[in-house]
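Forwarding these from the shared drive since the link keeps breaking.
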Amino acid sequence: MKEELIGILGGSFNPVHMGHIMLASYLSQWGYVDKVWLTLSPRNPLKNPKTLISDMKRLVMLNMATRSLDGIETCDIELSMPRPSYTINTLDTLSNRHPSKKFKLIIGSDNWRIFDQWRDWERILDEYGVIVYPRPGYPIEKASVDGMEIVNAPMVDLSSSFVRQAIAQGKDVRTFLPTGVYKYIIDNKFYR
């Protein structure tokens, strides 16, 4: 039996938006991976708590976003891991807990530019592999690297910071967010 290949797309998801969902859906449906796990990163104490809501509330939004989707799931493993959280530790922990699955990291071309600054980046490439997707304004350089795969995923110029700013300005951004997430944000007065 073939090992299931899981793509790990990490982030603060503050909030999760349709750009995240569209990318994850593309990667799983077009066969780059079998599934994508949206992996929630813990709250960074250096970030402004007014803009970064609690881990649990972001997890609720992620669960809402993935509830009815095929090939996309929520992963909260980093919330129970020692901090600071390093990607290599997350991948190692997931591999130990799920020995029948193979994991591959998913990052944007913005992060690919600085990937050689990540902890154990060479081991990530050698043992897990990296899928790099295009981000507006960040052309992919260093494209022929062992363990790295470029995907020509549709580019969506949408960010969580854009969504937060729009909400703060009173805009209705429900079409930018997965079902239920906009109502949850408005009901709880997040990002105001």
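-- next protein --
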Amino acid sequence: MEDDIRLGVLLPTGQAQWGEGTDPRRLTDFAVRAERLGYASVWTNDSLVTPRIEALVMLATAAAVTEGVTLGTATLMPVLRRPVQAAQSLASLDLMSGGRLTVAVGAGFPGRFGRPLHELSEVPWEGRFARLDDTVALWRHIWSNREPSSYRGPVLRFEELPAGIAPYRPGGPPIWLGGATPAALARTGRLYDGWLPYPPDPAGYGTGLAAVREAAAGAGRDPMALTAGLFATLLVTDDEEAGMRDLAEYTRAVYGMTPEEAQRIQLVAAGSPSSLADRLRPYVEAGARHIVCRIGVLDLRSQLEQLERIAELGKTLNALRPEYAA
């Protein structure tokens, strides 16, 4: 496990995040700026229930204008894609980016961001976790086989699979899981390469990461080899009260949530760079090492301004490294 704090940022691919009159092709500028500012990664999220640039299209576009930054999904919803076709798309993106892809996946949760996606994809809501795990196992099978093969899993079965395109890295890109239920923690430790939750409480993050590592050890895996991620919605401002009002507007516009609903399920914070570092520090002390920031403003100009200010967080947190030991 790397001990450095790596800072990533979510590309504002949702139409509500661009601002009226903005050309969304400027999102490539955002990716380039993030890399130049020293961000370790840029990410896209995935949905059909809100207007947004499709996740893998956005990452392919970003791959063409960047050189070394990690390209990630936070999170990809495999249910929205045919599993064999998705394996080829992801392998192709990993290949064309020079091995820079990280795939965090999720199965959705009850409400407007879960069941409707399954209905649109004509896939049952029931059994979604088993389907997700089996889809990931199928991807890895395809990525690891250079000859035609068959696959028989608990949910998916293919008697004749053609040889797929080989990803850049043997076995394919790392795959992380988003989720913090006890079952998700156990599955992360047994089956995945990293964990990307968004818990509102650092104590919950610490106990969750401990459960992930315990499950990994129980499965005969190196628990410290799994990447400990964290997803956080942030806004840098000198007026914390006004910043929280701006975040409330953001969560309503983008996710249809009240501020109270958002803060019950995820880390949402506004303040100066030093105060945000203080909010994130307990997560770092609990073991978080790759922090993915979602910027809580509603136009691209402000997103770019925030990108500059949030970049300082990674430097601040890494400067604290002698003071913590995870």
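The mean pLDDT is 93. The longest strand covers residues 227-236.

- D.
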